[in-house]
């Protein structure tokens, strides 16, 4: 269960890069040089982050940009996915983590999805005693942050 973060991140980027290319999105990655080990269910965290990045791809028009940032703090690690996409209306924001929720936005209806990705990612965060934060502005873009506690005392 102790996971090398660099391997986890490489797996994520390998999965999502082809989708970024297909949509001609400018995908930038900001990862600190020294990464801690984390104790997580690797496949679940990879799937949760691939969901967030997959949404960034789906809901950002061609030519836009997506930034994936990893921030290591004292007792938590933050994975941030920022896009320049269609954004989410303020009144819909409280609902995005609900099962089967999809926006009323006409631009979302034209995109395949079942409204389960974020509910899954949210549950994965919860099972790791973490959380997902979202902020968004319609027509400007969205930022989703998956935050996990870093367990102190877990050594290599
Ligand atoms: P699925 O992930 O099951 O294939 P989905 O992408 O529609 O389908 P979620 O990932 O759960 O479902 O997202 C729920 C809804 O939240 C989306 O339908 C969309 O309306 C909105 N949403 C999620 N991520 C973004 C984003 N990055 N930009 C704009 N809207 C988003
Ligand atoms: Mg999704």
TrEMBL record:
Domain Histidine kinase: 1-152
Superkingdom as given in the UniProt entry: Bacteria
Alphabetically ordered keywords of this record: Kinase, Membrane, Phosphoprotein, Transferase, Transmembrane, Transmembrane helix, Two-component regulatory system
Gene: phoR_1
Lyase found in the keyword field: no
Name of the molecule in the record: histidine kinase
Entry GO MF terms: phosphorelay sensor kinase activity
